[in-house]
């Protein structure tokens, strides 16, 4: 069975990276406990951007998370003031 990876890449200023990291830390536990199909979630702070990589049991679970209240209301609303551009959101399947 293949798993799905949801990759969200965001442009965040250096000054706002600690805030973005705090939002990640705040929502990681509820993501892992309450989101159906959630397997893991990692934060990558790179020079050029901030990336959050989520792993799910299926592609459908990843799509369902993007439509969930946790993501679309809670996470997005807190991150919105920190973003310098629209985030790049991609879903991949992993064998």
Task: Give a structural overview.
By secondary structure, this protein is of the alpha+beta class. The protein has a single domain, classed as Alpha-Beta Plaits, CATH 3.30.70. Helix content is 40%, strand content 32%. The protein has 3 helices and 4 strands; from the N terminus they run E-H-E-E-H-H-E. A 4-stranded antiparallel beta sheet has the order 2-3-1-4. Helix 1 packs antiparallel against helix 3. The longest helix is centred in the N-terminal third of the chain and has 18 residues.
List the helices and strands and how they pair.
Layout: E1 3-10, H1 17-34, E2 38-45, E3 50-56, H2 59-67, H3 69-79, E4 88-94
Antiparallel strand pairs: 1-3, 1-4, 2-3
Provide a brief overview of the structure.
Helix content is 40%, strand content 32%.
Amino- and carboxy-terminal Cα gap: 7 Å
What summary fits the major beta sheet?
Answer: 4 strands, antiparallel
Order of helices and strands: EHEEHHE
Strand order within the widest beta sheet: 2-3-1-4
Describe the structure using short key phrases.
globular, 4 strands, alpha+beta
